[in-house]
Design a protein that fits this description.
Number of strands: 3
Order of helices and strands: EHHHHHHHEEHH
Helix content: 40-55%
Shape: globular
Radius of gyration: 28 Å
Strand content: 5-15%
Largest sheet: 3 strands, antiparallel
Strand order of the largest sheet: 1-2-3
Structural class: mainly alpha
Length: 256
């Protein structure tokens, strides 16, 4: 639909979005490690770290030689694997543009928890929809979908530079751009979009992000770009007490 480029939305509560930067770095490192190896190594990593619904729900057992982490950990590990450079690049671009402001609104630690929970719920929802699937789910899309939903709830009026249809530069408010993106995910999920994309994972991430941002945001951070107005104490002007006038003789007119 579109490629996000930039949002003019400065940080207010943190100096540097180092969790977002760290997540991008970790995804890139994992991509290089997994995809620059042999095909056998790559396939083993995908099956060992990817989320497989039929394994997670104990319908089938993964071959012992493919087990890398406990199966419950794959609700998280799958989100750090990507199929190709375009898959990685698209997710990391969304994370770079929108993640910093969500991190700013939540704080570093709660943002990391938010990211991982969105990824986990995206995988879980994917598994609920296709519990018998033996195909590994990989990619950060569930977590990224959660970030998009959170950004929309936090900053709907911020204008974003995008490339519409991959080539037309436009500056559009988030409530248009991101709302259309979210609507598209639901439309593809309900309409049974292409098999290579888990629209259920996207929808699960969106739902998780929309709920968690309300719970985990800083207390002073408003939703929907609304300012939180703290009533100011009424300043009472303290006037000095009026001292009683001294008694003075009544003026006498004329001569005495």
């Amino acid at each position: 639909m579109f490629i996000p480029l930039h949002d003019a939305n400065s940080l207010k509560n943190i100096k540097l979005q180092y969790v977002t930067i760290g997540l991008i770095a970790l995804n890139v490192i994992m991509f290089l490690v997994v995809n620059l190896g042999s095909d056998t190594f790559t396939g083993a990593a995908v099956y060992g770290l990817g989320y497989i619904p039929s394994v997670a729900f104990d319908h089938v057992d993964l071959s012992p030689e493919l087990v890398i982490v406990p199966e419950k950990m794959t609700y998280i590990t799958y989100a750090f694997l990507h199929g190709d450079i375009f898959h990685l690049g698209g997710n990391m671009l969304f994370l770079w543009v929108f993640g910093d402001n969500v991190e700013d609104a939540l704080g570093h630690l709660r943002y990391l928890i938010f990211y991982l929970l969105c990824a986990a719920f995206g995988a879980f929802f994917h598994g609920i929809v296709a519990p018998e699937s033996q195909a590994p789910l990989i990619g950060a899309s569930g977590a990224i979908a959660g970030i998009v939903a959170a950004y929309l709830i936090l900053h709907p009026r911020v204008k974003i530079w995008i490339l519409a249809f991959g080539r037309i530069p436009l500056r559009i408010p988030a409530y248009i751009t991101l709302a259309l993106w979210i609507a598209f995910q639901f439309l593809m999920f309900l309409g049974g979009g292409e098999d290579q994309v888990s629209w259920a994972c996207h929808v699960g991430g969106i739902i998780a992000g929309a709920v968690l941002v309300v719970i985990l945001r800083r207390r002073a951070v408003p939703l929907l770009d609304k300012e939180i107005v703290t009533p100011k104490a009424v300043e009472v002007e303290q006037k000095s007490a009026v001292s009683p006038a001294r008694a003075e003789p009544a003026p006498r007119w004329g001569r005495q």
